[in-house]
Design brief:
Blueprint: E1 15-16, H1 24-29, E2 33-38, H2 44-54, E3 59-67, E4 76-81, E5 96-99, H3 105-110, H4 118-129, E6 138-144, H5 152-162, E7 168-173, H6 178-184, E8 189-193, H7 199-206, H8 209-223
Parallel strand pairs: 1-8, 2-7, 2-8, 3-6, 6-7
Antiparallel strand pairs: 3-4, 4-5
Helix pairs in contact: 2-7, 4-5
Length: about 220
C-alpha cells in the first residue's frame, strides 16, 4: 500500500513518500494536484516525462528544457508547451526563458536579451496557461522555481489553475520562495519529496494504470 503522511489544511508538511501498491483508500486521500519536489538532478522531471509518454491523455501546461545549442557558449532554459511534448518540440529562441547559473548581464546583452526573465515568463507562460482547452485531462507544470516569483502575470495564472477544476501534475524546485509556499499551502495540493531512497518506487507508482485512472477520475469528478 501507499505509506504517505497526507497533509490537510491545518498541517501542511511536505510528505516524504514510500510508494508501493496504492489501495483504493489511499486514492480517496490523495489531493487533486500533485507536485514533486526534492534536490536537483534527483529525477523529478524524468518521472513526469515518462508518465506523459506512458499514459495517453489530453495534456496541457508546460515543461522546461535545457539546451546548449541555441546560444553558443551558454546553457539556456526554455519553456515548451506540454500539449506538444510527444511531438518532440525543441527549444528555440522563441521559447527561451533564461541562462543557467549566475549568468552575467553581459551574456544577455551579447544576444540582445533582457537579463530579467519575468517578461518572458509572462509572455510564454501565460500564453500557455491562459489558453488551456476545456477538454484537458491533466495540466503539467514542470518545473516551477524562484524565477517565477517576479513574473506576476504568470504567477497569477498558476494560482488560477490551482483554483480550477483540472488536476495538475507538477514539479517544484526545492527553493524557498513565496510561490513555493503559495502552492504547497494550497488546500488542493499534495507535495511529495523525492529522494534517492524512494525515487524508483515513486516512478513505479506513477507509471501504473491505477495512478493514471485516479488522476483522470479527479478530472471527471470536478466536471460533474
Amino acid at each position: 500500500m501507499l505509506n504517505l503522511s497526507y497533509r490537510n489544511t491545518q498541517n501542511k508538511s511536505v510528505a516524504s513518500a514510500t510508494f508501493l501498491r496504492i489501495s483504493e483508500s489511499d486514492y480517496s486521500c490523495m489531493s487533486k494536484h500533485i507536485f514533486l519536489t526534492g534536490p536537483k538532478q534527483i529525477g523529478k522531471s524524468t518521472i513526469i516525462k515518462k508518465y506523459i509518454h506512458s499514459h495517453p491523455a489530453s495534456y496541457a501546461g508546460f515543461l522546461t528544457e535545457k539546451s546548449k545549442e541555441i546560444y553558443p557558449g551558454a546553457t539556456s532554459v526554455h519553456m515548451l508547451d506540454a500539449a506538444f511534448f510527444t511531438q518532440k518540440k525543441k527549444p528555440s529562441k522563441e521559447n527561451f526563458l533564461f541562462f543557467c547559473g549566475q549568468a552575467p548581464d553581459a551574456l544577455y546583452h551579447q544576444y540582445n536579451l533582457l537579463p530579467d526573465p519575468a517578461p518572458r515568463f509572462n509572455k510564454i507562460g501565460c500564453a500557455i496557461l491562459d489558453t488551456i482547452p476545456i477538454n484537458t485531462n491533466i495540466i503539467i507544470m514542470d518545473e516551477i522555481g524562484p524565477h517565477e516569483c517576479e513574473a506576476f502575470e504568470f504567477y497569477h495564472s498558476i494560482v488560477k489553475c490551482l483554483d480550477g477544476d483540472i488536476p495538475i501534475l507538477g514539479v517544484l524546485q526545492q527553493a524557498e520562495s513565496a510561490l513555493y509556499r503559495r502552492i504547497a499551502e494550497h488546500p488542493d495540493v499534495e507535495v511529495i519529496k523525492v529522494t534517492k531512497e524512494n525515487r524508483n518506487q515513486i516512478a513505479f507508482s506513477f507509471h501504473t494504470p491505477d495512478t493514471h485512472q485516479h488522476l483522470l477520475s479527479r478530472w471527471s469528478e470536478r466536471r460533474h
